[in-house]
Amino acid sequence: MLIKRRFIPNLLISLFSVVAFGSASTAWATNSITTIGNKTRIVAGNRTLEVEQGIVYEVGESRTPIEQLYDPNFVQNTYTKNANIIYRIIPNHGNLQVKRNFTENFDSANTVRDLIGADVNWTAMTVQGEGSPTVASYVDLRHKILRGQSDFLDNRIDPSTQRKHSGTKSLRTFTKATTNGLDVNKSSLDTELTFFARGDDFWFSGWFFLEQGKPASLIDLESAYMKEGPGIRLMLDDELRPSVQLKFAYKPAFKMPQQTNYSLPTGKWVHLRLHIYLMDSDAGRVRLWMDNTKLIDQAGRTLTMFDAVYNSLQVGITAAPPNMNTVLYMDDIRVSDSGL
Ligand SMILES: [Ca+2]
């Protein structure tokens, strides 16, 4: 039976790569991100920047605006609260309750189209690859796939009976090797009905089966209304060792202790559980467990800016190298604001 789904228009798309300012992380002891009143001050290397009301200022002998990072009225204009429930206002559509608690087992989906829409768990997908290398091209491809006007070009997201952690299906995500100068490969399932802010607990639990390749990040929680989508993400290094990174400014990282050296194994189901307490100071905290072994437990800043809302969650191959195939299955995804 063909079910016509209501698609959510005009949700923002985030980009990969670095934040608008700041480059790769440095080990300089002076690096810091500090909330000062209604400003966020960033010291990165020899630069001092401040963000206030969405504007980034370079601070030196004078204070010079250098760019607009986000619309300071976005949150106020996009969300409404009723009886402590937060709703996202979707123009020409209505209000949709944000999703801070949900479970996804992929069992009833026949195609990715069954997973995306106003009445299911996800609102979008990001399939960036050789055939859709730019934001405009992957947004266009997404629309065509969701309308049934196109199949995937190279990278794919498919419910699959090949592997499952539970039930009958999991979700297979695939990115294809290319030598065509692509910056990053992506095949992720996304929701922009997420809403996590200062003082909130973000809990994530999911089963992953890495069949092939080296995904660079698996879970990406970010502010999609800001340029380049700053936020916090679960990353894997070249040897598939996990870390969590605040994707902002000098990119502070949450890592395994020196004596701990775990990698995500290939060829088996692995359970990842993540807790992030969101705070714009060192009172934030990140904990990561793999198969119930706690790998990371570190305090630190977990929120980019004091008033930031992480309104987008991407899961799957949220980044992978362009020069190799990556095949990642996932199943039994759970998100919660109160514990998992
Ligand atoms: Ca399943």
Structure description:
It comes from Aliiglaciecola litoralis. This is Polysaccharide lyase. Pfam families: Polysacc_lyase (PF14099). Residues 1-29 form the signal peptide. Keywords: Signal. By secondary structure, the chain is mainly beta. The protein has a single domain (98-336), classed as Jelly Rolls (Sandwich), CATH 2.60.120. It is 5% helix and 42% strand. The protein is built from two helices and 23 strands. The protein has helices at residues 74-78, 135-146, and strands at residues 32-36, 39-44, 47-52, 55-59, 63-68, 79-82, 85-90, 94-97, 102-104, 124-128, 156-160, 170-175, 185-191, 201-212, 217-222, 231-236, 242-247, 253-254, 269-277, 285-290, 293-299, 312-320, 326-336. Strands 9, 11, 12, 14, 19, 20, 21 and 23 form an eight-stranded antiparallel beta sheet that branches. A seven-stranded antiparallel beta sheet has the order 10-13-22-15-16-17-18. Strands 1-2-3-4-5 form a five-stranded antiparallel beta sheet, with no helix packed on it. The longest helix is centred in the middle third of the chain and has 12 residues, at 135-146. The model is unreliable at 1-29 (pLDDT under 50). Calcium ion binds next to loops.
List keywords for this structure.
mainly beta, Jelly Rolls, 8-stranded antiparallel β-sheet, 7-stranded antiparallel β-sheet, globular, binds calcium ion
Please tell me the CATH architecture by its name. Sandwich
Secondary structure category: mainly beta
Low-pLDDT sequence parts: 1-29
Supply the number of structural domains. 1
Question: Strand tally, please?
Answer: 23
Write the H/E string, N to C: EEEEEHEEEEEHEEEEEEEEEEEEE
Number of helices, where a helix is a run of at least 4 consecutive DSSP H or I residues: 2
Query: For the record, what CATH class applies?
Result: Mainly Beta
- The rounded Rg comes to 19 Å
User: Beta-sheet strand percentage?
Assistant: 35-45%
Distance between the termini: 35 Å
Bound molecules: calcium ion
The proportion of residues forming helix, as a percent range, comes to under 10%
